[in-house]
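Researcher: Let's try something more involved. This one mixes different molecule types, so please make sure each is placed in the same coordinate frame as the others.
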Amino acid sequence: EAQVTQNPRYLITVTGKKLTVTCSQNMNHEYMSWYRQDPGLGLRQIYYSMNVEVTDKGDVPEGYKVSRKEKRNFPLILESPSPNQTSLYFCASSNIPRGPSPLHFGNGTRLTVT
Amino acid sequence: QKEVEQNSGPLSVPEGAIASLNCTYSDRGSQSFFWYRQYSGKSPELIMSIYSNGDKEDGRFTAQLNKASQYVSLLIRDSQPSDSATYLCAVPHSGTYKYIFGTGTRLKVLA
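Model: All components are placed in one shared frame. Result:
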């Protein structure tokens, strides 16, 4: 089954404790992206990647890191999480730029930083 | 002007009615347009894609695109309470391929 898999689904952590949210897709997509969603603010892009070793900042990259060492994986790293990073996070992938293609979303990770 | 604009709603319609959701975009070079449905706390789910001017129908859903007016809409016929959700319009930027999302329209279908 074609899918984007994020882990974990729920995560509660404390300020300053490094964490990684994993994302993997099995559709051979070149484009991958991370979003956060907060009430009233909609989906905001954190980082995106057009291909292996190619990453770019989105609208809200501060406090986040990403890497794209393999085509299928695009982990999101919070080196020193803070309470303002409490949010619902989505990973997504797409076949763009090979042609018009929608984003396929993972199931989301709800992060709470205390 | 926001790059992709939607009325936040809520849009309330009675069961069985047609719900009409609208989206305007600013990038004249955009070539593809997507509608997603999102239930609270869940991930966005693709319901319609449209790439050329005119109408595209899929079951109870019709997407309408007018590139000259930079306008895309979603019609939901015979609305059901299960259609109650937030509907997101997404437009990939023509130069960067960055997907720009509207803030979504919350739809309430009243039984």
